[in-house]
Amino acid sequence: MGLLQTNNLQKQYQMGDVTVHALRGVDFVVEKGEFIAIMGPSGSGKSTLLHLLGGLDAPSEGEVTLAGVRLAQMDDDHLTIVRRRQIGFIFQFFNLLPTLTAAENVALPLLIDGKRIADYRARIDELLALVSLADRRDHKPHQLSGGQQQRVAIARALITDPAVILADEPTGNLDSASGMEILQLLRRACTEKQQTILMVTHDSQAAAVADRVVRLRDGRMDL
């Protein structure tokens, strides 16, 4: 069994009298340390799949298993803890808190988890150095470029040493040079730290940095 696995994963939405089949039975396995790009046309189910893998939404049928544990078997409190500690999220629009510094934004998952930030200063500094922002630790988001903000978001996703990072179009809001820096950073996290990464992208150049590309079409996976 891989680190992350789906079995007959299905998701339907009801829109008035119409049933929308976002996912139609997805089966795949992700091994520890893999970097996987998920591609497909708009409406193919890419973001829906990422939300189900991250426990942000529940499947209509089928299941997601993370590190041998089925997400569907967890109550809300347990699932919240798993999302907080074992899953790192990177979004297209950074989602940084504007009133916090770069270092404070990186530390946010620890704060939410009730940790003493002072105990993690070395880890925070290590990650800011990893994303080449050691000299920007006290800058707030409005003082950072888009690429720098996304690097803060990557450091934040890594702070809990999660089992898997889920990235939804992480370069979609960046210029090509900044986007390539972000992709190289994710590649390094995978290669040097054995970080498992699943990245939704529509960009074939972005997908080229991954170990494997899986394609969705009409809610089905073409392996």
A few lines on this structure:
With 223 residues, the chain is an alpha/beta fold.
Report how far the terminal alpha carbons are from each other.
Answer: 17 Å
Cα gyration radius (Å): 17 Å
Strand order of the largest sheet: 6-7-8-3-9-10
Largest sheet: 6 strands, mixed
pLDDT < 50 stretches = none
Any overview of this molecule?
By secondary structure, the protein is an alpha/beta fold. It has one domain (4-222): Rossmann fold (3-Layer(aba) Sandwich). The chain is 34% helix and 27% strand. A six-stranded mixed sheet has the order 6-7-8-3-9-10, sandwiched between helices. The model has no long low-confidence stretch (mean pLDDT 90).
Short key terms for the protein model shown above:
alpha/beta, 7 helices, 10 strands
SSE diagram, text form:
Blueprint lengths: L3 E12 L2 E13 L4 E5 L6 H8 L7 E6 L2 E2 L5 H11 E4 L11 H11 L8 H10 L15 H13 L5 E5 L7 H18 L2 E5 L3 H4 L4 E6 L2 E3 L1
Helix pairs in contact: 3-4, 3-5, 4-5, 5-6
